[in-house]
């Protein structure tokens, strides 16, 4: 059963989410962090969350600032905001009596998940799927206007048919983000999932993350999948891998 929820961002805007309740016996609770502009209803977020719920792991997935059903504008946030709002999502779950044991992040959300996990005491395990080793890798999506943004303070760009405002603070914040430094100090078990045929975020990124991580750490190659997990059955396959790996930490 899916339940629509809302909570307040660190920027004061309301964020929209979906809570996929566990089916059958409860094994634990988790939080899913979506990619850069993908949203809670993207194939990776929705299919993996529903599949984990079917495995007894209830999942919360939410739209980031300015994405999907959430209020605000993407440009009003930053990588730091995404991390902070992920922590608030975990706090929302804790306040309702279902603190997250697991945090799963896809793509850019995988980077945010690692940083957020260190600020959520209840999280016992972390999973990244197709995550970049450098959050600033996202700049290639808006590189055509970076010069204008840094000089003028803001600029407009189009992605997925939507016009968005990009601000200097966003660009500078992303460039400052140090994921590998946080991976080295992550005091949680880490599972790195990546497809060797990922044409969006190369599998070398997974190697960098995995090599920086301390044990317990695990790596699974999701052969045959694209970055967005749109190939039939791949998101569900990823969920089964996550479910089996996380069992000892739930």
From TrEMBL:
<dbReference type="InterPro" id="IPR029058">
    <property type="entry name" value="AB_hydrolase_fold"/>
</dbReference>
<feature type="domain" description="Serine aminopeptidase S33">
    <location>
        <begin position="31"/>
        <end position="180"/>
    </location>
</feature>
<protein>
    <submittedName>
        <fullName>Osmotically inducible protein OsmC</fullName>
    </submittedName>
</protein>
<dbReference type="InterPro" id="IPR053145">
    <property type="entry name" value="AB_hydrolase_Est10"/>
</dbReference>
<dbReference type="GO" id="GO:0052689">
    <property type="term" value="F:carboxylic ester hydrolase activity"/>
</dbReference>
<dbReference type="Pfam" id="PF12146">
    <property type="entry name" value="Hydrolase_4"/>
</dbReference>
<dbReference type="InterPro" id="IPR022742">
    <property type="entry name" value="Hydrolase_4"/>
</dbReference>
